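Quick start: load a record and inspect it. Here is Sulfotransferase:
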Amino acid sequence: MHPYSLKSSKGAPFPPRPILVVLIAIFGFYVCYISFNQITLENRYEENSGEVQAEIHCRKPRLPHEELRYVHFPKPESYSRGECSCNPVRSFVLVSMQRSGSGWFETLLNSHPNISSNGEIFNRVDRRENISSILQTLDKLYNLDWFTSAAKNECTAAFGLKWMLNQGFMDHHDDIANYLNKKGVSVIFLFRKNTLRRLISVLANDYDRDAKQLNGTHKSHAEILAKFKPVLDVSNLIPNIRNAEKYIRDCLDHFNTIRHMILYYEDIVRNRNALFQVQEFLGVPVRKLVSRQVKIHTSPLPGLVRNWDDVSNKLNGTQYAHFLDGADYVHPPQQQLHRTYCITVRKYEQ
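Running the structure step on this input writes:
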């Protein structure tokens, strides 16, 4: 055959050029795909190894082994912790009842540069309508994806919220206790020893809310509220005191397996050294804590109730008679108070 003939030879047909191009392209794509996957897997392995090494590096030099359960290294989705990423964070919840000094106590906590307490986030019903919404809210909070005025310029070392007993805390106590244990959350219980004073404060607060004083604007103005003297329902006084104390006992029973400490408003007022133990409990440097909140009822009890004689006659001779002599603002010897406080804390930390 002539070398320049256009007729093909009778041997095996050679694939047309377009088919060859397609086959080469497919082969090249396959090689690139395999190489890319291998590089991606290596990068993921290195990234995960780096995270593990970073976490080990953050934990080992600073913290004893028994503390690891209660310290965390959150990785917020909404921002980067940057230079604070190796700063361990302790999660906490401040549990209390209305008119027990929790608002004042929270301002004390937030005066610390490394503590952020984010208020009553469960005062909104949609956040506590069921256990799922509660746990989702807690997950967002403890991952540091919660923006409030409690944010600090310094690295956060303790992060939490204030939770009232009547805001779903007792309604789902088993699930919440399991969550707090699993997440390594510490609990600070804050109550009042003198339930009678608390009842008086509740009535004054209700009056303030309903009366809407100061030109129709609701403001908790200490001087005006202090002038209001409620009339206590003597017939239900003892049942109300008994129910409030049972509510507290039930709460402590439900959450006694969680790392916690118990505080009383009266102890903090009388002895500011109690705040040092709180900071040690939260694992933050001890600082002097301050608050600008003004206390309302600082007078002796007989001057706070209009029907004091009826109240006194009702409680005298009962197990609640000691409430009649209770004075939050009497300062007994510091040494005795400090010893009593430490016993209370150690008893419930074991």
